[in-house]
Amino acid sequence: MPDDIKETVPKVLKTLWDLENELRGAAQNSVVLRREEAKKHLAEARQHLDDLLSLVRSHDGAIEPDSASSADDDIPPQIKH
Length: 81
Fold this sequence. Notes:
Distance between the termini: 46 Å
Shape: flat
Number of helices: 3
């Protein structure tokens, strides 16, 4: 990702970009039978995935649910299970 764009993109998208690059690198190396490099890329991809999940969890934790209304309030009674 070009540096000028990277500064304006949200962290979540940067993490997805890094994850995609590592997975692509692992796939390319596995095709050429460079097992150690492929394992390294997969490990780095896993780290980017963990970073992404922690960002999402921290974002979800920052959003306070509105106690006055629940998600079920918008569902008609006939559809509720």
